[in-house]
C-alpha cells in the first residue's frame, strides 16, 4: 500500500487530478491509463511518426505530473492534457520544418493497430475500399496546416466541443469554427478528387 | 476547387448561396438532401466530397490506437522516482529510527474514506503532518466529497480513518479535520 492507496475505477477525473496534485501516484496512474491512448493517438495523427508520438506522449504526462497543482479546474484534466499535447505536437512539427527545406510529401505509418474499422467485417472488398478511404484522408490531413489539422482531429476524432477545442488550442470559439470549416472544405475537395 | 475559397462569393458558401457547413451537418445526420440540393450542380459536387469525407472520417475515428505498453512503464518510473523524494514523518525513534512518507500515509487515509460503507465518499486533498514533539502521532486534514442525497456519517468516518491508520501504518491521530464538499455528479 506504500506507493498509493487502491483507487477504484469509477473515481471521477477531478478527484484523481486533485489527488495526483497531492502526490498520489496511484491516482496519477489511473489518469494515465484513462488518457494515454487518446493522447498518443492525437500525437500520432498530428506528427505521423510512432517514435515521435511516443516521445510527445511521455513528455505530456511527465509535464502533467509535475504541474498538476497548477491545474485551475481539476475536472477539466482531459482538456488540459490535450492542451499540453497540442503544444508539444506543434513544437515537434516546427522543429521538423526548420530542419528540412523540402516539404514533407506524405506522412508515414499513421495507421492505428486495428484493421477492422467498423464496417463490413466479412466483406474484404468493402473493407479494402474503406481502408483506402482512410489512407486518402490521412494524406489529405497531412497536407493541412498543423493548426487546422489539430482542430479537425479534436472535433471529429476526439469529439470535443467547440468550447473545449478553443481551450485546447488557445483561441476563440469563433476562430475554431472558422478553422474547422476551412479544414473540412479542403478535405472534402481532396476526398472528392480521390473518389 | 469547387469548395475552396477562390470561387466562392462568401467564405464557406457555394456559388448558389448554400453554406458548406450546413451541408456537412446534413451529411453527418444522414438526412435526405432537400429539393434544391438534389438539383443544384454546386451542391451535388460539394455533397460528393462531403460524403466521401464522412465515410473516411467514421473509419478513422473508429480505428483503435493503443499507446505502446513500454510507454506507460517509462512514465510511471519517472513519476515514482519523483514521488519518493517527498516528505516523511517519524515512525520510530532511537538507535534504529524509521520514517514513513506523508504521501503513503495520505494514501491510506484516502483508502479509508473511499471504502467507507455506502460507497458515496471520495477523498481529495489530504495533508499529513506529524504532531510537534511526538513520534507516532499525526494531524490530518482531508477534503471529502459526498455524492448523493443522504447525510454522510462523519463520526463513523472519523473512527474508520483512525482505526485504518492504526492498523495499516501504526500511527495515531491527534487532530483530524474533515472538510466536507458536496459532489455534483454521482
Q: Kindly give the count of domains of chain A.
A: 2
Distance from first to last alpha carbon of chain A: 58 Å
Oligomer class: heterodimer
Helix content of chain A: 55-70%
What is the arithmetic mean of pLDDT of chain A?
Answer: 84
**CATH superfamily (homologous) name of the largest domain in chain B:** Cation efflux protein, cytoplasmic domain
Topology pattern of chain A, helix = H, strand = E: HHHHHHHH
Q: How many distinct beta strands of chain A?
A: 0
Strand content of chain A: under 5%
Indicate the topology:
The complex is a heterodimer of chains A (about 200) and B (about 190).
Chain A: H1 13-21, H2 25-47, H3 50-67, H4 77-99, H5 124-142, H6 146-156, H7 162-169, H8 173-194
Chain B: H1 20-29, H2 35-39, H3 41-62, H4 69-84, E1 88-92, E2 98-101, H5 102-114, E3 121-130, E4 137-146, H6 154-169, E5 172-182
Parallel strand pairs in B: 4-5
Antiparallel strand pairs in B: 1-2, 3-4
Helix pairs in contact in B: 1-3, 5-6
Q: What is the gist of this entry?
A:
The complex is a heterodimer of chains A (195) and B (186). Chain A is mainly α.
Q: Could you explain the architecture of this structure?
A:
The complex is a heterodimer of chains A (195) and B (186). Chain A contains 8 helices and no strands. Chain A has helices at residues 13-21, 25-47, 50-67, 77-99, 124-142, 146-156, 162-169, 173-194. In chain A, helix 2 runs antiparallel to helix 3 (50-67). Chain A is globular and about 55 Å long. The relative contact order of chain A is 0.11. Mean pLDDT of chain A is 84; it is low at 1-6 and 112-122. Chain B has 2 domains: 5-62, no CATH class; 87-182, Cation efflux protein, cytoplasmic domain (Alpha-Beta Plaits, 2-Layer Sandwich). Chain B has helices at 20-29, 35-39, 41-62, 69-84, 102-114, 154-169, and strands at residues 88-92, 98-101, 121-130, 137-146, 172-182. In chain B, strands 3-4-5 form a 3-stranded mixed beta sheet, with helices on one face. The chains are: A mainly alpha (195), B alpha+beta (186). Chain B: This is Asp23/Gls24 family envelope stress response protein. Chain A: One of its GO terms (molecular function) is sigma factor activity. Chain A: Keywords: DNA-binding, Sigma factor, Transcription, Transcription regulation.
Amino acid at each position: 500500500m506504500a506507493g498509493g492507496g487502491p483507487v477504484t475505477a469509477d473515481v471521477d477525473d477531478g478527484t484523481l487530478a486533485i489527488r495526483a496534485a497531492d502526490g498520489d501516484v496511484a491516482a496519477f496512474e489511473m489518469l494515465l491509463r484513462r488518457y494515454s491512448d487518446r493522447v498518443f493517438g492525437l500525437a500520432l495523427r498530428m506528427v505521423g511518426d510512432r517514435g515521435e508520438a511516443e516521445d510527445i506522449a511521455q513528455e505530456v504526462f511527465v509535464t502533467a505530473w509535475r504541474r498538476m497543482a497548477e491545474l485551475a479546474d481539476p475536472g477539466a484534466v482531459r482538456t488540459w492534457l490535450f492542451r499540453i499535447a497540442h503544444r508539444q505536437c506543434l513544437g515537434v512539427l516546427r522543429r521538423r520544418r526548420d530542419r528540412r527545406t523540402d516539404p514533407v510529401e506524405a506522412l508515414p505509418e499513421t495507421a492505428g493497430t486495428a484493421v477492422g474499422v467498423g464496417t463490413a467485417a466479412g466483406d474484404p472488398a468493402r473493407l479494402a475500399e474503406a481502408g483506402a478511404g482512410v489512407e486518402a484522408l490521412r494524406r489529405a490531413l497531412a497536407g493541412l496546416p498543423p493548426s487546422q489539422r489539430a482542430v479537425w482531429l479534436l472535433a471529429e476524432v476526439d469529439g470535443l466541443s467547440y468550447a473545449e477545442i478553443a481551450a485546447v488550442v488557445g483561441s476563440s470559439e469563433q476562430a475554431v469554427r472558422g478553422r474547422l470549416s476551412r479544414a473540412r472544405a479542403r478535405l472534402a475537395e481532396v476526398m472528392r478528387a480521390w473518389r | 476547387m469547387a469548395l475552396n475559397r477562390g470561387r466562392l462569393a462568401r467564405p464557406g458558401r457555394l456559388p448558389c448561396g448554400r453554406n458548406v457547413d450546413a451541408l456537412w451537418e446534413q451529411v453527418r445526420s444522414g438526412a435526405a438532401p432537400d429539393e434544391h440540393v438534389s438539383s443544384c450542380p454546386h451542391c451535388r459536387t460539394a455533397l460528393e466530397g462531403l460524403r466521401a469525407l464522412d465515410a473516411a472520417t467514421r473509419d478513422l475515428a473508429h480505428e483503435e490506437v493503443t499507446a505502446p505498453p513500454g510507454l506507460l512503464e517509462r512514465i510511471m518510473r519517472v513519476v515514482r522516482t519523483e514521488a519518493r523524494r517527498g516528505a516523511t514523518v517519524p515512525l520510530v525513534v532511537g538507535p534504529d529510527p524509521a520514517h514513513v512518507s506523508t504521501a503513503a500515509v495520505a494514501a491510506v487515509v484516502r483508502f479509508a474514506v473511499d471504502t467507507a460503507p455506502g460507497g458515496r465518499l471520495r477523498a481529495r486533498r489530504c495533508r499529513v503532518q506529524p504532531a510537534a514533539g511526538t513520534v507516532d502521532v499525526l494531524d490530518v486534514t482531508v477534503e471529502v466529497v459526498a455524492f448523493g442525497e443522504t447525510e454522510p456519517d462523519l463520526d463513523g468516518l472519523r473512527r474508520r480513518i483512525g482505526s485504518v491508520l492504526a492498523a495499516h501504518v501504526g500511527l495515531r491521530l491527534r487532530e483530524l479535520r474533515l472538510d466536507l464538499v458536496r459532489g455534483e455528479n454521482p
